[in-house]
Amino acid sequence: MLYYGYPKVKRRLKLSPRTGRPTDNPKNQGYRLRMTEDEFKMLDFCCKTLNMTKADVIRQGIKEMYQKAQEKQ
């Protein structure tokens, strides 16, 4: 009986640091959000319709509410 196989070789790949992340304005603050199923469906609908990520939709909503708050002052 013959077994053919390759020797197991462990390789460590040297990866470059994450690219595409802004160094002048890093996103290092996080927040966990709990929402109802209906709110989650609305968020998912916005993401699919606008072709945006959940984080981008939430950031856009924060910007719009911030502008409204500034106008009230």
Overview of the structural elements:
- This protein is mainly alpha-helical.
- 45% of the residues lie in helices and 0% in strands.
- The longest helix is centred in the last third of the chain and has 19 residues.
- The model has no long low-confidence stretch (mean pLDDT 85).
Question: What key phrases describe this protein's structure?
Answer:
73 residues; mainly alpha; 2 helices; 45% helix
Concise account of the structure shown:
By secondary structure, this protein is mainly α.
Q: Rough shape?
A: elongated
User: What string gives the helices and strands in order?
Assistant: HH
Q: Specify the structural class.
A: mainly alpha
In percent terms, what proportion of residues is strand?
Answer: under 5%
Weakly predicted, low-confidence segments = none
**What oligomeric state do the depicted chains represent?**
single chain
Mean pLDDT: 85
Distance between the ends: 84 Å
**Main beta sheet: strand number and arrangement?**
none
State the share of residues found in helices, binned by percent: 40-55%
**How many beta strands in the DSSP annotation?**
0
- Please, how many helices? 2
| Gyration radius, rounded | 23 Å
Architecture blueprint of SSEs:
Blueprint (H helix, E strand, L loop, with lengths): L36 H14 L3 H19 L1
